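Regression check, zinc ion case 321:
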Amino acid sequence: MFEDIVSTFTRLRPTPFSGEVVPCNLCGSAEHDVVGRRDRYGNRLVNVLCKACGLVFVNPMPTEERVADFYREEYRTSYHNAYTPRKKAILRAKKGAFLRHVHIAPVLKTGDRVLDVGSGGGEFVHYMCEKGFDAHGIDPNEGFVDYARRTYGVPIQIATWQTARLKDESFDVITANHVVEHFRDPYAAIRRFHSWLGPEGRMFLSVPSIANPNRTPYGRFHFGHLYNFTYETLAMLARRAGFIQSEETPERSTALIFNKAEPTEEWQLFPDHYAEMRDFFDTYTNRRYFLSPTPYFRWVHRMKRLGGDMIMASVTRRPTK
Ligand SMILES: [Zn+2]
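Current build output:
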């Protein structure tokens, strides 16, 4: 209980940062609209929409040092409330590892060398090792890497994508599950992934979608998410960095599989995307959200679930004869 109160105050505490105005990471344009001024806890955080390509990102952007500090010390505690993974998070990660393997199975080949970027507690690396792959991980969080090594004995470096000691063309598959939206320069990171992959390389990227009409508008933005992708901006960024979406996974989602190709300047796959995103932000406003029945249904649903949990807790606590 005390821990929960502390964590609530940690979340509400402003996340101060020194930032700098940056051009769009996808197209280089400096023209943008402001689409958010606060994060989900009410702290100041400006998000913009690029007028040339439709990418949404934090601007001013925190400095590299500030981002590194955030991940070294604050991220796991303020976002997930844990320095080492909690039981619930481990179970969720195990389920996630299973589902990710199912998702990428159509493009996997026997004996593939797999790298998981942002490997967290090591569940996916462990799962892939068990399946017979030569799997490795990198993650900057010491607590999580230590847990992964102790629990599963899997090879994981304590490193960011910038500091990792990995040879060019030393992997066949790279996965980054809810990772690149946290990077300050996702284009440069994906270019690095490109160099780590061999000629037949495949890459799995999964990010949350900002264009989700069911998400609460006031809860859209978070300091951890420096980029807020859509299917279109993720596909265009990967295309520019030298990847083509796999024909075996043609879905239009924000969990995509790509094949290694050549970088190209012909990456503008969705020229109307700014207009679509402008329309999205104009349509899904806080005002419209609170005038709709959605938040009230959600509240009733939450109360019902809480009531069910309390009944379950009282039943399981009853002593047996
Ligand atoms: Zn742009």
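Comparison notes: The two ends are 30 Å apart (CA to CA). Residues 24, 26-27, 29, 50, 52-53, 55 surround zinc ion (CB under 6 Å). No diff flagged against the previous build.
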